[in-house]
Amino acid sequence: MTVSSGEAVEILRAAGEPTRLRILALLGREELSVLELCSILNQSQPRVSRHLKLLAEAGLIERFPDGAWVFYRLAAHGAGRFLADQLLALIDPADAAHRRDAEQLSRVETERSTEAAAYFARNAARWDEIRSLHVAEADVEAAIHKAVGAAPLGLLVDLGAGTGRMLTLLGGRASRSVGLDLSQQMLNIARVNVGEAGLPFCELRHGDIFATGLPGGCADLVTVHQVLHYLGDPAAAVGEAARLVAPGGRLLIVDFAPHKLEYLREQHQHRRLGFSDEEIVRWLDIGGLELESAAALPPASDAGLTVKIWTARRPAVAERSAA
Length: 323
Known about the structure:
Elements: H1 5-15, H2 18-27, E1 32-33, H3 34-41, H4 45-57, E2 61-66, E3 69-74, H5 79-90, H6 96-123, H7 127-131, H8 137-148, E4 153-159, H9 165-170, E5 174-181, H10 184-196, E6 202-206, E7 219-225, H11 234-244, E8 245-256, H12 263-268, H13 277-286, E9 290-297, E10 307-313, H14 317-322
Helix pairs in contact: 1-5, 3-6, 11-13
């Protein structure tokens, strides 16, 4: 990878400032909003925004609006990303400034998790009702059945299992299923629902969608149903889900198309207001998966949300060898 000497100077000039280097280190951990960066750095929004503008112009980071919010992340590729990776690898983890920033990032993440946990605890009993406010659940489930097909499954893994709806919907065709969720209230309801559905080979675990602890390539089908929009790093969650998919297996993601219903951030703890096909496909590609289909289910009214169902597959070993 080569750039002109002028481009190299611009990239180095953008990265070669203490606050901007701190920003790069933070975005190396996860995508963050402007206000979150201001809180972590203890700097004003105009000042942080100026630093972000310079980093973006140099190709070191990417800016993407999400409703009324704006998020930033490291550039996906290019000379800027290459240089950012090299610089971040040189930073001593014990460096005082970067250690403080990491501690402040942990505080922001904890606050985020605490608010989300409280929300899920308050709404666990009526979760399926809340999720059906926008698109008829029966229509979504029919589309999921169509995407998955009728073939029997080995292991089904549901990440962010919630009340266990994906497990009860698809678990009957799996020889074994595992559901993970961080909310004990959700898991308790899921256990009741799975039991009532008569699924004896279904295991429910308290687990982290970013670090499942499951072996790579273990699952015929991995589902991530209405989870990504709550997460601080949805790309990492897709990466972990993709890691679990066996050769020839599939990943099913159900979430919202981009929308502008800002009240969902305040009232329902949504962090992201939907996802574009381009964004999902990029994450799938990084995880070694190929998009099979992307179905859209529009709402009954203009005030609702469009549900998207993305289905991706990991090529079988023979297919990869022939390619």
